[in-house]
């Protein structure tokens, strides 16, 4: 049997979540912060771009037609990454329940072709395990996380129960940053995304590596969006610091070794960068990703993979075999 082509980076928009948070003053404050960080030019482009993609984000028939057009057999679908980490405990519970049940219902319309991820409230670490359990009870494969929550990095000890339970259950954790804390420094030329996203990925992964989270939880199944951002290509600097500075010795082994314990999507936009990611992490740790259906993704992830001119074994591993194993499709 031919291994299916699997895209692990695809999104769904859940109107029920948006309706629940609409009108909240905290939501308005969060939107104001996002607007300052992105800048007016980006906001002017984002609105029409998202509106044009509403059918693919919400309608399963439109999604499947687009998948057929680019020869993708299976998508791992995660909520559009607006995490609402400003929400109090009661609202956070409503958000994750709606996100989990909504994503599961969307995927249930094409169960042979769609798998899903839910959400957990990183701003309330003591509720994170409950939210993960809820996602798994809906038949989802795991959850999507941002790079941090207000005042909390992924290295915070408060997340230890989440890492422990994710490891025990084999749940997938999809690290997908939303926004960037460099704020107005990136408010032009869409730097909030082009520089901000890979920066946030690098910072979050570094927290997980240097804090020893991956030492304590070696079986954690974490997928980093956008090829892990800047970290894989510049991991030598982290290794150097680990060797020469005692304050950088939070992890047991050189930081580069942990890249082979993580997973990365292939969405790096440049064949040479993809080849370097494969060199750093291994072909068995890279998964096909498109960021469907957004403009910063690719409409043809297989073409982007072919452009890297990989050996056949690596190509087919990334095309689908690695993800099929993670999703327990084989």
Automatic annotation (TrEMBL):
This is Amidohydrolase. It comes from Streptomyces griseoruber. Keywords: Hydrolase, Lyase. GO terms for molecular function: carboxy-lyase activity; hydrolase activity. It comes from the Bacteria. One of its GO terms (cellular component) is cytoplasm. Pfam families: Amidohydro_2. One of its GO terms (biological process) is secondary metabolic process. Residues 6-329 form the Amidohydrolase-related domain. InterPro entries: ACMSD, Amidohydro-rel, Metal_Hydrolase. SUPFAM superfamilies: Metallo-dependent hydrolases (SSF51556). The lineage of its organism: Bacteria, Bacillati, Actinomycetota, Actinomycetes, Kitasatosporales.
């Amino acid at each position: 049997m031919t291994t299916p082509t699997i895209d692990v980076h695809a999104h769904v928009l859940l109107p029920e979540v948006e309706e629940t948070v609409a009108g909240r003053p905290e939501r308005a404050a969060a939107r104001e912060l996002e607007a300052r960080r992105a800048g007016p030019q980006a906001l002017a482009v984002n609105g029409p771009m998202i509106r044009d993609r509403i059918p693919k984000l919400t309608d399963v028939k439109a999604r499947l037609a687009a998948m057929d057009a680019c020869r993708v057999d299976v998508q791992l679908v995660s909520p559009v990454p607006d995490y609402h980490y400003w929400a109090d405990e009661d609202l956070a519970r409503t958000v994750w329940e709606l996100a989990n049940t909504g994503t599961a219902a969307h995927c249930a319309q094409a169960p042979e072709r769609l798998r899903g991820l839910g959400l957990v409230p990183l701003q309330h670490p003591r509720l994170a395990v409950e939210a993960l359990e809820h996602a798994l009870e809906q038949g989802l494969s795991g959850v999507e996380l941002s790079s941090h929550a207000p005042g909390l990095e992924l290295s915070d000890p408060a997340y230890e129960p989440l890492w422990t339970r994710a490891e025990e259950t084999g749940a997938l954790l999809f690290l997908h940053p939303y926004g960037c804390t460099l704020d107005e420094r990136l408010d032009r030329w869409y730097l909030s995304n082009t520089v901000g996203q890979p920066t946030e990925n690098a910072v979050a992964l570094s927290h997980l590596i240097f804090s020893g989270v991956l030492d304590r939880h070696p079986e954690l199944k974490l997928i980093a969006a956008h090829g892990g951002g800047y970290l894989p290509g510049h991991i030598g600097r982290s290794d150097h610091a680990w060797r020469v500075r005692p304050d950088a010795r939070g992890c047991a082994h050189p930081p580069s070794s942990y890249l082979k314990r993580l997973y990365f999507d292939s969405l790096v936009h440049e064949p040479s960068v993809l080849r370097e990611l494969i060199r750093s992490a291994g072909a068995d740790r890279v998964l096909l990703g498109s960021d469907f259906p957004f403009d910063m993704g690719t409409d043809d992830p297989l073409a982007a993979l072919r452009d890297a001119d990989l050996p056949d074994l690596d190509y087919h591993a990334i095309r689908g075999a690695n993800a099929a194993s993670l999703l327990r499709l084989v």
